[in-house]
Amino acid sequence: MSVYNFCAGPAMLPPAVMEKAQQEFLDWQGLGVSVMEVSHRAEPFLTMAQECEARLRRLMNISDEFAVLFMHGGGRGQFAAVPMNLHLDDAPAVYINTGIWSDGAAKEAKKYTDVVEINVRDDKDGQFGVLPVSQWPLPEKASYIHYCPNETIDGVELFDVPTHPTAPIVADMSSMILSRDIDVNQFDVIYAGAQKNIGPSGLAIVIVRKTLLEREGVPRPGILDYAIEAEQGSMYNTPPTFAWYLADVVFKWLEEQGGVPAMQRHNKNKAAILYDYIDASDFYINKVDKDCRSLMNVPFWLNDESLNERFLALSQQAGLLALEGHRFVGGMRASIYNAMPVAGIEALVTFMEQFAQEHS
Ligand code: PMP
């Protein structure tokens, strides 16, 4: 039986990546030792690190105006790093609230800087919606504007990018990085925890406009300091070397698949299969407005919620893992990142159809 893992994160990685890592596990590059056992300052690791950054720059079309950092502490590490690095004494940070993760980012930022929160949720009649970006009431002055293009828990994705005449735009791309084409130049800081589309948890990728490295910010740990990390090639302290290596294997796999444009086609196709089935069914519902439905995280609810436990038990028996919705929103959630094949979506829809027939 094939097993498909719909976990929101740490999420499934491409089987080809895992096999490559397994092959190389005990003997990396013919050194007779694992990549985990070599110095990050030795030539083989440094070369890998450089190639990895170059690959990410190619995949995302990142220009020299940006530094690319491989940092510790995952997504939440960046919830702290962003305000610490970008704080200005004379302007507040603006946090756009579109759901649970952007709200979490604002809460963390308040420890380090003044925060103005703007709620742009537009929920009506039990449907989750978001105001169009052009209608967001952004203030004239801000140290930066933070938003989350894909709310992993709420299943809400924003396809338009906010703009501001002066304030940098900061995006938490943890759950959509590399899943579809974006223009990096529309942003000033992009960050992402790795454990969805990149590799093992704990690693965070940060893409930061170099001009922002000059901001004084507030006193902060060296490992969360963008300027220090940029200057030291993300090796101020020992980096998460295995996670970095695995990210490189994932980036190679992405290049082989045809890069981000190919992923975008693949992800749109997968999401359409699932949403179309849910919309046509009277057994399941999705509560997110059609124009902001996530391509990566598809929450759905059974009309009869008393069947939830049975749905979860039987889906697990069928090899469809981790479909339970986040405890804050309930119901079910299928996370379908880059690594999820179409066959996984087809298996899920087949199971859902069968379950609906047997329980109607
Ligand atoms: N932001 C988003 C959008 C997320 O989905 C997550 C984790 N699921 C985080 C931040 C936090 O990431 P971490 O657990 O790596 O701190």
Automatic annotation (TrEMBL):
Q: Which reaction does it catalyse?
A: O-phospho-L-serine + 2-oxoglutarate = 3-phosphooxypyruvate + L-glutamate; 4-(phosphooxy)-L-threonine + 2-oxoglutarate = (R)-3-hydroxy-2-oxo-4-phosphooxybutanoate + L-glutamate
Q: Which residues bind L-glutamate?
A: 41
- Cofactor binding mode and count: Binds 1 pyridoxal phosphate per subunit.
Biological or metabolic pathway of the protein: Amino-acid biosynthesis; L-serine biosynthesis; L-serine from 3-phospho-D-glycerate: step 2/3; Cofactor biosynthesis; pyridoxine 5'-phosphate biosynthesis; pyridoxine 5'-phosphate from D-erythrose 4-phosphate: step 3/5
Q: Does the keyword Transferase apply?
A: yes
Enzyme Commission code(s) on record: 2.6.1.52
- InterPro entries tied to this protein: Aminotrans_V_dom, Aminotrans_V_PyrdxlP_BS, Pser_aminoTfrase, PyrdxlP-dep_Trfase, PyrdxlP-dep_Trfase_major, PyrdxlP-dep_Trfase_small
Q: Which UniProt keywords apply?
A: Amino-acid biosynthesis, Aminotransferase, Cytoplasm, Pyridoxal phosphate, Pyridoxine biosynthesis, Serine biosynthesis, Transferase
Q: Which residues form the Aminotransferase class V domain?
A: 3-348
Annotated positions binding pyridoxal 5'-phosphate: 75-76, 101, 152, 172, 195, 237-238
Family matches, as PROSITE patterns:
AA_TRANSFER_CLASS_5
Q: Which cofactor does it need?
A: pyridoxal 5'-phosphate
Name this protein carries in UniProt? Phosphoserine aminotransferase
Q: Which organism is it from?
A: Pseudoalteromonas qingdaonensis
| Gene that this polypeptide is encoded by | serC
